[in-house]
């Protein structure tokens, strides 16, 4: 089964918690803080592999998780870092975030690896907080949580030349004649349900040729097999535009319709060099239709007959000639490339939402991150967090919006009473 698009969920590991501990030995009853740091949570990497051809392995595996880091221990023992997880995907896979379809990366080379979900940092033990003013700190940090992402993996075939055209124009027959590919051939629409790949070799030169499933009007909107396979043309450098001369359809209109679909789909498909091929020129009527089509089009058109092996070498030679100067187009629009937003001093650290007459909630990625970082199992940790809230202006903001003594303030699952 050919699977070329999957959605999977990734979960990196949480960092291990730092330990609160004090050394108690026979000859050192007050040995000081010795709580170790937690280990790093496992990260998740995506890696391109030439040993995989489809996304079939992801058909049932929808969630990939990395292990959590180990917690710190007594006697300054650091927690063990969790193992990173490497997920192999086919070369040619393109990664997007599911929530907004933002482009993440293009794994277009064997061995290319990207960090997709970073493991959480391990928390510091209380030994790290010892200083001349506090020689016995009862404070430690929790490990930071890992990341959770849902991503789309799309496989875009790595072909140099793609054959396009309406269904049943002779694409599969052509690729079967010029390569060792054994494509399914039959006289009905959508015989080709998956792209066929073959290697064309001649005079110590070669290129990869792809037979794309037939396109119809509206393919760019998903009609027929449209969007499922238009994306496979995105990597090709050259297109062989095949038009049937032995059907009841108008060849010129077919040519215009296919080009319109390429233009509407964007991704620079219409900008690629095209070799226009008139297929099935096996009789006088078909040849007359070819002559009329060529004259109306006003450009070079190569007549072929795959059954008679007529002019097939001419098409292949033209491909080799154009590939010498063909350019590689990006597989996404540069204008849609995700912009990197840099943090600045004016970034919102927190915001406060009034939930009821006497209940307020503190929101904000940075303040919530700090809350999860501080271990509040000891009074000293809780005091450190309250001091942090005062430092960033939470107390002042609560006063501004009308909070009164005794009101409840929440952040995540932690609650405390507000005092003016």
Topology:
Layout: E1 5-11, E2 44-49, E3 63-65, E4 85-90, E5 93-97, E6 103-107, E7 113-117, E8 148-155, E9 161-164, H1 171-178, E10 196-202, E11 205-211, H2 226-230, E12 238-244, H3 251-265, E13 274-279, H4 284-297, E14 302-303, H5 312-323, E15 351-356, E16 359-363, H6 365-373, H7 379-392, H8 394-400, E17 408-411, E18 414-417
Parallel strand pairs: 1-3, 2-4, 9-11, 9-12, 12-13, 13-14, 16-17
Antiparallel strand pairs: 1-8, 2-7, 5-6, 5-8, 10-11, 15-16, 17-18
Task: Describe this entry's structure for a reader.
This protein is an alpha/beta fold. It is built from 8 helices and 18 strands. The strands form 4 sheets. It has a 6-stranded mixed β-sheet with strand order 10-11-9-12-13-14, with helices on both faces. Strand 12 (238-244), helix 3 and strand 13 (274-279) form a beta-alpha-beta unit. The radius of gyration is 32 Å and the shape is elongated. The protein starts with a strand and ends with a strand.
Tell me how many strands there are.
Answer: 18
**Structure class:** alpha/beta
Shape: elongated
Major beta sheet, specifics? 6 strands, mixed
Average pLDDT confidence is 82
Rounded Rg: 32 Å
End-to-end span in angstroms? 67 Å
Q: Give the tally of structural domains.
A: 3
CATH structural architecture of the largest domain: 3-Layer(aba) Sandwich
Reported by name, the CATH topology of the largest domain is: Rossmann fold
- The topology string of helices and strands comes to EEEEEEEEEHEEHEHEHEHEEHHHEE
Strand content: 15-25%
- How many helices? 8
CATH superfamily placement of the largest domain: P-loop containing nucleotide triphosphate hydrolases
- Low-confidence runs of at least 5 consecutive residues: 188-193, 216-227, 333-346
| CATH hierarchy class name of the largest domain | Alpha Beta
Helix content: 10-25%
Which strand order do you get reading across the main beta sheet?
10-11-9-12-13-14
